[in-house]
Input
Amino acid sequence: MQDKNIAVGITGGIAAYKACELVSRLKKMGANVKVAMTRNATEFVTPLTLQSLSGNPVVTGMFDRPAQWEIEHIALAKWAQVFVVVPTTANLIGKLAAGIADDFLSTTLLATRAPIYLAPAMNTQMYTHPVVQANMRKLREMGVRFIEPATGRLACGDVGPGKLAEIDAIVAALEEAFQRVRDYADCRILITAGPTREAIDPVRYLSNHSSGKMGYALAQAAVRRGGAVTLVSGPVALEPPAGLEELVRVESADDMYQAVIQRYPDQDIVIMAAAVADYKPKILSGQKIKKTAEPLVIEFVKNIDILAELGKSKTHQKLIGFAAETENLEEYARTKLIRKNLDLIVANDLTQEGAGFGVDTNIVKLIDRSGKTEDVPLMSKADLGDLVLDRIKQLS
Ligand code: PMT
Output
């Protein structure tokens, strides 16, 4: 943390006093800390306290010093290497998700390009409210990271999720953030995401349930960490991350193969997170197949195995595959790791609650070519994206 620039935002929750301990800890670790408070936060803890602890002037409201605020909020946005908001209220989450900038803190959060970490703290009923959860999902998809609240007895007497994460956990998340700042700056990385569609006729196709969230989370993390990221995406309903070097939209496995193989020589890393169809119809009907009294029988033939082809022609690249299974997860994943000449495989059991298709979380087993296995518990696909990139960095 030595000499790192950390902006600490404080919003108006009962846990605001804990921000004092965080600022004090970060200062003791050698970090430079600047604090921005909402007006409501000043009802819980005084700016003077934070000024004393941080050793820097504290900015509150928007128009304390109108002459300077434009300079101050842009300056803070640029100065910060990491931005953490402790505690984060439902109000701040909603404003950030909606792009509302009606005070200094919300304005600066929109202006900064530093990684943003939010540590929510609120009543359980609020935290679990669908609109708060939807706002958090939207922010996660944009690369905002959450330091999940603890579960326990809250100030209001309720018991459940919503208690501010321990200061140790917040400090650990910030230390991890600094390990990840631009550590992919010299890296060219191609990621595939989403399903493929195998046409049967001009109207019908065969596909699967992939939403693209896993691949997009990996791409988001790689962009944030400075990588030159090419995202090859099947048809999904997600906004691509900002800052990609190239976005290539494809439909079929053959399209995806062409898009990947021609870019492969220029890549340092390829991560095949896409759910590529293993089969396609032997015959593609030029006309819509008309209904008859007879059953419709379609013969399918195998698609090209893109990952296996990449494994055969691997030179300097690191090659990472996924394994989507419903049984024998480790055995099948190990087989794919070896057979496809991978450096790492990310295996997920699609039958597990909170894992696999469509959800914002995943539960995986990581296996590298040395045979090292790591069980990763349920976590957001955003956090898993960073973890997979951490593990790729650690590959020998
Ligand atoms: O997109 P989400 O909704 O977030 O869901 C995420 C996910 C479940 C799709 C993802 O976590 C995942 O498991 N992706 C891989 C799905 C898949 O095709 O797994 P597989 O075990 O069938 O294939 C093994 C590997 O070979 C994969 O890396 C796949 O990209 C690749 N493959 C498969 C078939 C094929 N013809 N060519 C390939 O390259």
